[in-house]
């Protein structure tokens, strides 16, 4: 029964994704389907029961991002981070949800870990697509080389917090082969994503030799290593402080301790129960964060040392 529910949700998401691709196309917006159905078809024999998914990931031309958001709004989706501060939002994608069917869409303007501008990412990845279908709808998906690159980048992005991306990367290594992964390294270099690419390969023992071969001289920043290697609460704040310029750190601490309402409600669900609980959570949050500090510092230091390589 549980598998049937997961399968039915995947089929629902496929229908949602196909409809959105068609709606975007009708308005002159090209898109690329990332992950989800495209990974299932290429790596798991087209059987969602072997690899379920929870959302639809679509990459669009960043120059048409606002138009794509307007279409999502028109068909009933809501930006889950609406009202958040700019530095609280993920720079590579926004998450949208529709109440009527609980469908979730990640609208990408780039891929996490890429160092070149989003427009350049879009231009490069468009050259690495192939045509596929969902039902009767034709969709663009990543070709094998770009898919291999994305598998590694996604494994680095989620790290130990989610077992699926490393599992997908293992499967990709098995199905696509080492030569495809070597070609993917060239794409990663063009995307300015070699640190994240190498970090992703290091997440899987089966690709450790490839990581050493392709990652010689590649410096993996501390923030990326920490994100990949630990799931301890509080390490994200330490990462942000480490990456920020010294004069920005006091303001950043204040913003982390007292985030926007939307972020507080996501991190402390009690805050969503009304004004009383919202105020209570704002008052309790400094104490809550202080209790996590020592374990977060230990975890951050362990992760930072694990891949310590001096930049060349």
Task: Outline the structure in words.
By secondary structure, the protein is of the alpha+beta class. Helices cover 55% and strands 11% of the residues. Strands 1-2-5-4-3 form a five-stranded mixed sheet, with helices on one face. It has a two-stranded antiparallel ribbon with strand order 6-7. The longest helix is centred in the C-terminal third of the chain and has 32 residues, at 275-306. It is globular.
Keywords:
14 helices; transferase; two-stranded antiparallel sheet; Beta Polymerase, domain 2; alpha+beta; five-stranded mixed β-sheet; transferase activity; NTP_transf_5; single chain; 312 residues
Measured on Cα atoms, how large is the radius of gyration? 20 Å
User: How do the strands line up in the largest sheet?
Assistant: 1-2-5-4-3
Q: Which class of secondary structure composition applies to the elements?
A: alpha+beta
Describe the sheet with the most strands: 5 strands, mixed
Question: How many extended strands?
Answer: 7
Assign the CATH class of the domain at 1-111.
Alpha Beta
């Amino acid at each position: 029964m549980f598998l049937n529910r997961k399968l039915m949700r995947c089929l629902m998401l496929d229908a949602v994704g196909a409809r959105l691709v068609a709606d975007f196309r009708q308005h002159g917006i090209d898109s690329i389907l990332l992950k989800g159905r495209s990974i299932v078809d290429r790596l798991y024999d087209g059987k969602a029961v072997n690899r379920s998914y929870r959302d639809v990931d679509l990459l669009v031309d960043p120059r048409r991002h606002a138009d794509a958001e307007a279409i999502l709004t028109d068909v009933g989706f809501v930006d889950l981070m609406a009202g958040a501060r700019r530095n609280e939002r993920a720079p590579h994608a926004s998450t949208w949800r529709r109440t009527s069917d609980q469908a979730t869409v990640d609208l990408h303007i780039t891929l996490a870990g890429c160092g070149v501008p989003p427009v350049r990412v879009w231009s490069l990845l468009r050259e690495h697509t192939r045509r596929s279908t969902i039902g009767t709808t034709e969709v663009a998906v990543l070709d094998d080389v770009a898919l291999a690159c994305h598998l590694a980048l996604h494994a680095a992005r989620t790290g130990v917090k989610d077992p699926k991306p490393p599992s997908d990367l293992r499967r990709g290594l098995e199905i696509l082969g080492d030569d495809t992964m070597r070609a993917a390294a060239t794409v990663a270099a063009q995307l300015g994503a070699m640190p994240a690419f190498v970090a992703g390969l290091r997440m899987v023992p089966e690709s450790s030799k490839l990581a050493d071969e392709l990652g010689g001289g590649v410096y993996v920043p501390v923030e990326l290593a920490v994100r990949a290697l630990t799931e301890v609460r509080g390490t994200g704040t330490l990462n942000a402080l480490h990456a920020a310029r010294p004069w920005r750190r006091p303001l950043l601490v204040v913003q982390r301790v007292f985030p926007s309402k939307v972020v507080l409600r996501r991190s402390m669900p009690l805050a969503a129960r009304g004004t009383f609980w919202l105020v209570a959570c704002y008052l309790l949050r400094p104490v809550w964060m202080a209790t996590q500090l020592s374990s977060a510092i230990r975890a951050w230091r362990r992760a930072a040392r694990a891949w310590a390589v001096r930049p060349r």
